[in-house]
Amino acid sequence: MRLMIDTSQVTFTVGREAQPKTDQNGVQRVERNTNIPMWSVQLVAMDNGGAEVITVTVAAAQPPKVPTGSLVTPVELQAIPWAQNGRNGVAFRATDIKAVPASKSGSNTSGS
């Protein structure tokens, strides 16, 4: 089951730039149906309850161009619960990871 995540109250910062998602032999994984390469991007997700580091997988011909430390928005973020060989967890997937435009930061306002 894939669960869509409401990201409207969460701020995401890139913790580590996109890396190829690889199998145990170091070969980059591809989506089964499309053969599109898969990439992993480490994000720091922060809300009023604190912060958590998550790794988000994106399938794309080229890695998302989001530098470390930049504010981003994961597009159509999904949580995918999994269980295998007595282990379990949650995998995160997005269709894209987009940089947040600098104009949204409010850097043009002056404080007194």
UniProtKB/TrEMBL annotation:
Protein name: Regulatory protein
Organism of this sequence: Amycolatopsis tucumanensis
Organism lineage: Bacteria, Bacillati, Actinomycetota, Actinomycetes, Pseudonocardiales
